Batch of 4 targets.
Target 1
Amino acid sequence: MSEGLNEIIHAPNRLRICAFLSTLEQAEFATIRDMLGVADSVASKQLKVLEEAGYVKLSKPKGLGRVKTWAALTPEGSRAYSIHVAALKALIAG
């Protein structure tokens, strides 16, 4: 891949997750799944790849009612996403 492009982030669904989370403090799993328009298993797999890379932090806060999974971009994930976007812009600009 070209300089600065991140193979982990570059996959379309993971790129969309990073773009979405970059504008929010955190998002609930169902919101991410619905934004992607995919099945639970697909969203879960993509989030797991990002989590394993250290780009996304998943949490399940205990509270009243059903336990929900929340995702947030980590500082490392935010940096990697910014570098990837800059590399895409440079590629497009030629």
Note: The longest helix spans residues 75-93.
Target 2
Amino acid sequence: MRRAVEVRHPSLVAPEFVELLRAEGIGLVCAATVAWPRMMDVTAGFVYCRLHGATELYASGYDAPEIDFWAEKIVG
């Protein structure tokens, strides 16, 4: 079973937390949101991105440059 953690509190933005996730093979959710920290470390054999809203949580979309940004991150 895959496991993933979405960070919503700044206290978890720490190298030690990232290393713990990596050691346990737990994915770090890359949350694109205006409300919580964005962490983009790869900590498992999969990547999980959540696009919560570009300017307003759960209510706003993404324009073409923002979609291009995420596409580049995903495709490489």
Note: The chain has a mean pLDDT of 92.
Target 3
Amino acid sequence: MSYIMVDIESDGPIPGDYSMICFGAVVVEPGLERSFYGQLRPISDRYLPDALAVSGFTREQTLAFPQATGVMNAFADWIHHLGTDRPLFISDNNGFDWQFVNWYFHHFTGSNPFGFSSTNLGSLYKGLVKDTFQTFKHLRQTRHTHHPVDDAKGNAEALLTMKQEMGLKIRL
């Protein structure tokens, strides 16, 4: 089993009506050397300028990105070639990130290699420190830039710190 930290950027609040613009994934392991980055052409004419602005891309730039089918198939192949029998999806905001990744996998490839569940990094931290008012974000080393690989890497660093220095019992 391998935890794969995922972060996405979108141009709106829900998949289908709006589009996942780009995403990043990092295998949570010492060194954090295995990563994936995908940019996706919008699948809808709808978008919210403020949501898109978070990604740092213009609408015109996103219209030149690759089609979602090819990107999602490449991501599925990358996951498959990690050599893990069970890839586990984890993210800072899994309620948001998971809905897009799950929808895109099912819509464009027919299945989701992560299965039907995901894990929320913030909830793990809150349980570890036994305080629902706490946040893990101070454990990141990589600056949060809204580039999804940077953000996934920072979150993966936090998870490694939770395991190595704080005693979180987790198989990585």
Note: Helices lie at 49-55, 59-62, 68-80, 94-108, 121-129, 148-164.
Target 4
Amino acid sequence: MIPFLARRLLTGLATLLLASVVVFAVLEILPGDPALLMLGMNASPEALATLREQLGLNDPVMVRYVSWILGLLTGDFGRSFTYSSPVIDLIAERAVVSLPLAVISLLLSTAIAIPVGIFAAARRGKAADTLSMGAAQVGVAVPNFWFALILVYIFAVWLQLVPAGGFPGWKAGLWPGLKALILPSVALALPQAAILARVTRSAMLEVLGEDYIRTARAKGMPRRHVLWRHALRNAMIPVLTILGLQFAFLLAGTIIIENVFYLPGLGRLVFQAITQRDLIVVEGVVMLLVASVIFVNIVVDICYALVDPRLRSNA
């Protein structure tokens, strides 16, 4: 198990290093002067010179890249020009919204999708299977911001059970904070649950045709035990793959939902930084999201090995 983990960690570090080169290079090849892009066309020469010095734009490219990497390793993501505060503080402030939102959405998506996928696979070709997969197809086709608008109208405007937007902060209490994340979590979870349910059904159908499943049924094992104890575990590899991809999407792809619900998360921070041309913030947040995706992929690989021990020696 230790060699398996070591290989995965080394692969993750190499991927992160390559990603840092790509992110840095993309900002380097952008046309125009970054200082002029951030300050605007009407900026004075003195202000431009000061910002170039602050950003280190007068140094050679390799010096700037090494300095940036060393800063990331020590937690120095630079200082935001727009907010006049360290980027790491902005990220920490927004992550306490985006991370719980992504976790709640993933848990909700999993709690819906896996039972639905197993239910549909166990009733293949029947009306329940058709209805379940038809609903899943609708969930895949409808964008999450449309779900968000419908949820706001029903539960916030009509029934007035939850707030339509905004976030009171965790200092206001656990329940007010969770209450503000209910609708965004559901809006994010429903399309992802539809995708995961279809994948779970397909994986279960492949496993249910195996000989050991027929043997278990022939021995009189209850159908529920066959589905949940034997079939599901052997169908988990593709399900875990989708779960890893979904968590990465939920963490990095919440820009639309956070703007619909006015949540002060990482997605909204990136959106505001792009519109305000705060490239330092964009650079820092993108690298953090890349690192999060790589970390999730490593966790998924470890889960592969736990589910199927044969992968430890073959990986």
Note: The CA atoms of residues 26 and 42 lie 25 Å apart.
